[in-house]
Amino acid sequence: MKRSVVALAVMGLGLSLAHAQETVVRLGSVAPLTGTISHLGKDNENGARLAIEDANAKGVTIDGKKVRFELLGEDDQADPRTGTTVAQRLVDADVKGVVGHLNSGTTIPASRIYNQAGVPMVSPSATNPTLTRQGYPGVFRTIANDVQQGGMLGKFIVGSLGAKTVAIIDDRTAYGQGLADETEKAVKAAGGKVVAREFTTDKATDFNAILTKIRGVKPDAIFFGGMDAQAGPMLRQLKQLGIEAKFVTGDGGCSPEMIKLAGDAINATTYCSMPGLAIDKMPGGPEFRTRYKARFNTDVQIYSPYAYDAATAIIRAMQAADSAEPSKYLPALKKSNFQGVIGTVAFDDKGDIKEGAVTMYQYRNGAWSPM
Amino acid sequence: MEIFLQQLVNGLVVGSVYALVALGYTMVYGILGLINFAHGDLVMVGAMTALQTMLFLMGAAPGMSPLTMLTLSLAVAIPVCMMLGYTMERLAYRRLRNAPRLAPLITAIGMSFLLQTIAMILWGRNYHTFPQLVSTAPLQPVAGVFVTPIQVTIVVGSALIMAALIVLVTKTRLGRAMRATAENHRVAALMGVDTNLIIALTFVIGAALAAVAGVMYASNYGIAHYGMGFMPGLKAFTAAVLGGIGNLGGAMLGGIVLGLVESFGAGYIEHMTFGLLNSSYQDIFAFIILGLVLIFRPTGLLGERVSDRA
């Protein structure tokens, strides 16, 4: 009797010791998993998940203990109010870092909550400039912001496409509006004339009324600031109304989904822009694409490489600082400098990624090809 | 002038779809006093079922003509929606017929969520491309107005269906029974009308209209997804109230008027308010009109027709 009690106690001690050797570090990922851009949201979460799985497979040691990363994936429905609720939930669940959110409209309010709790946040896709201008020390992004993107777009539309008159539509979200405003500024700076400024929402499917209005002013090019779920149908309706302007959109529309939704309406006069390099030109791009397809059985949409590198940045910073505590690894995160899937990942003093390249794409032969 | 005519065409197309859906809302409200929030999702089920059928046919019989494919898909979508409408009535709403008004209302909202979630599970969260089997290539522009064959089909088709419904309700025995039940279902029962059957038929007819509206809506825009029924449903209900709830003619008129108001509103609001408001307000423009109509004419444009609930 006594011997078996001792044996049990030793076993228990041994088990608890073995367990104590592995700590669980929780990271959060927030993206719209339901709603019109759920395919992009799932893409983001998958990118972060792949990074976590790679880290767990490699075996990461922090502060002498083996660490297992766990990803808490949350759905913010692309809605700013849900975004703040979800952010608070993650903070309460004691996450040590967050990859997210996807939309600028939800990332900006959520960043306030993460900042108050001292949890660092790296966004793979929020491009509105305001995000890093708020003065929060723990806010980063692995994607170029809309000042750079809008600037490039304006120059492209007036310069390369030779458009003298431009109509601009946005979806009234922080992202769409921000990008459209920057593009408008750049178009005017390049000498173009903005002949119409129309608005829709991120849930609309009928754009005939505003497109008819735009047809009346006969622009050379139309720019849409918003996501692929609207850009695709908008392109269809453009063709149905007999409008012959060139169609340009930003990174929100630069996805395979946009091509599917636009159907026959898409052709070589459709362009989109993407902050960063083309996935095939990214140093780790082609390999990432293959591994992603093998793991998730679906194609890379847009931002998963950026999400992968965002998660990797957090993990590497924790390793460099030898601590999973936000206050300790934040300085290391600030000084990140490594070769990720997208290229060099290094942040400037505001939290923006340093090499903010923007690539223009044209629709050719069933896919977006970089120009 | 060309912009005005084009906006008119746009508004008519959207309005026709709203009218079809509004009919379903108004018929049910007229008899039961129930706002069937799940009706918009029947539109979605119709579209998704048709989509599934089209995908199946395209795989199994690639040589089939587009018109045959469309007809067959409608032939599948309409009965499915009718069955779903009947099931909803039988399982959820019939038991609550004598309950206080709030209970069926909340049930309807719950039913709406249920349908959307089941659709999300079955068809995923992504937007699906809906095969546009009736051509969307614009016809020869008349007076600068571009019209596509699908838009013509929608307007003409809706008009025919609505005419058929009017004939059904005014000139047949079934229609007389429906009108009697709508007026006072207890007295109608005393007169020998099988009110349970009539109420079930009302749901079923409404569901059939919803299925057709769903296919039209999805064909016009080329996309279908699990949440596509919510907004059109809400707008169609608004149209039904605008025209006079319970009134069939009112629902049709309300639908067309709402479509036109949305179209002209988005197009001209900037002119009318001298640049103060712009097209980002296009959604609320319709609701402002609704508010104004209800303030000055509370029973709607053609007057409401709700049953006497003793």
Name a few traits of the molecule.
heterodimer, A: 371 residues, alpha/beta, Rossmann fold, 2 domains, seven-stranded mixed sheet, six-stranded mixed sheet, 12 helices, 45% helix, elongated, B: 310 residues, mainly alpha, two-stranded antiparallel sheet, 2 strands
Molecular structure report:
The complex is a heterodimer of chains A (371) and B (310). Chain A is built from twelve helices and 15 strands. With 371 residues, chain A is α/β, with parallel strands linked by helices. The longest helix of chain A has 21 residues, at 38-58. Chain B starts with a helix and ends in a 14-residue tail after the last helix. Chain B is 72% helix and 1% strand. The relative contact order of chain B is 0.20. By secondary structure, chain B is mainly alpha-helical. The chains are: A alpha/beta (371), B mainly alpha (310). The interface between A and B is large, with 38 and 37 residues.
Summarize the structure.
The complex is a heterodimer of chains A (371) and B (310). With 371 residues, chain A is an alpha/beta fold.
Structural class of chain B: mainly alpha
The best one-word shape of chain B is globular
Query: Which residues of chain B form runs of ≥5 with pLDDT under 50?
Result: none
The N- and C-terminal alpha carbons of chain A lie at a distance of 79 Å
Query: How many individual domains of chain A?
Result: 2
Helical fraction of chain B: over 70%
Order of helices and strands of chain A: HEHEEHEHEEHEHEHEHEHEHHHEEEE
What class would the helix/strand composition of chain A place it in?
Answer: alpha/beta
Main sheet properties of chain B: 2 strands, antiparallel
Q: Can you count the helices of chain A?
A: 12
The number of distinct helices of chain B, counting runs of at least 4 residues, comes to 11
- Estimated share of beta-strand residues of chain A: 15-25%
The radius of gyration of chain B is 20 Å
